[in-house]
UniProtKB/TrEMBL annotation:
This is Histidyl-tRNA synthetase. It comes from Winogradskyella psychrotolerans RS-3. The lineage of its organism: Bacteria, Pseudomonadati, Bacteroidota, Flavobacteriia, Flavobacteriales.
Length: 157
C-alpha cells in the first residue's frame, strides 16, 4: 500500500464507491462476503487497493495546504512541479495562532516586527502525491487557499 488505509468511517462514507470498485472487478456482494469470510488476506488487499485509489484521487486535486501551529503558520501552494511556501513565525509565547484570539492578534499586528515572513519554493521529490500525503499525515490540511492568497497579495503589495 502506498498511502494508508481509509478509516472505518471513511469506508462507510464511500460505501457506494467501494461497491462500484468491486463491480469493476466483477465481484458481487455475495462474493465479497465470501472473500471477507474465507480469504481475509484477499479482502485486506482489496481494501488497500481501494484506499490507495481514493488517496490518489484526493491528492491529484490538492492545490493548497495549511499547517498551523501555535507559533507558526505554513501555507503551501501546490503547483505542478513545485510548491510555494509562505510562512509566518512569531516568538511571543502568549500568542497562539491555533486559537481565535491568536488569529485576531495576527490580524491586528500584521505589520509588527514580531512577525517574521518567509517565502520559498521547493521542488517535489520523484513522487508529488507521496510528498503531499506525508504533509497531510504530519498535520497539514487541504484548503481552498484563501489564507495563502491573502498573504501572497500582502507580500506583493
Amino acid at each position: 500500500m502506498k498511502y494508508s488505509r481509509l478509516t472505518k468511517e471513511q469506508f462507510e462514507e464511500l460505501h457506494q464507491e467501494f461497491i462500484n470498485f468491486l463491480a469493476t472487478q466483477s465481484i458481487t456482494g455475495d462474493e465479497w462476503e465470501d472473500i471477507k469470510k474465507n480469504k481475509p488476506e484477499a479482502a485486506e488487499q482489496e481494501l488497500d487497493v481501494f484506499s490507495d485509489l481514493v488517496w490518489f484521487g484526493v491528492l491529484s486535486k490538492v492545490e493548497y495546504l495549511e499547517h498551523i501551529s501555535p507559533q507558526q503558520i505554513h501555507l503551501f501552494q501546490c503547483n505542478e512541479k513545485s510548491m510555494r511556501l509562505i510562512a509566518l513565525k512569531i516568538d511571543i509565547e502568549e500568542v497562539d495562532f491555533t486559537t481565535k484570539e491568536g488569529f485576531e492578534w495576527l490580524r491586528n499586528n500584521l505589520l509588527s516586527d514580531a512577525i517574521e515572513f518567509f517565502n520559498a519554493k521547493k521542488e517535489y521529490s520523484d513522487d508529488k502525491h507521496l510528498d503531499l500525503f506525508k504533509m497531510i499525515q504530519s498535520g497539514a490540511n487541504i484548503t481552498k487557499g484563501e489564507l495563502f492568497n491573502y498573504f501572497a497579495d500582502l507580500i506583493k503589495g
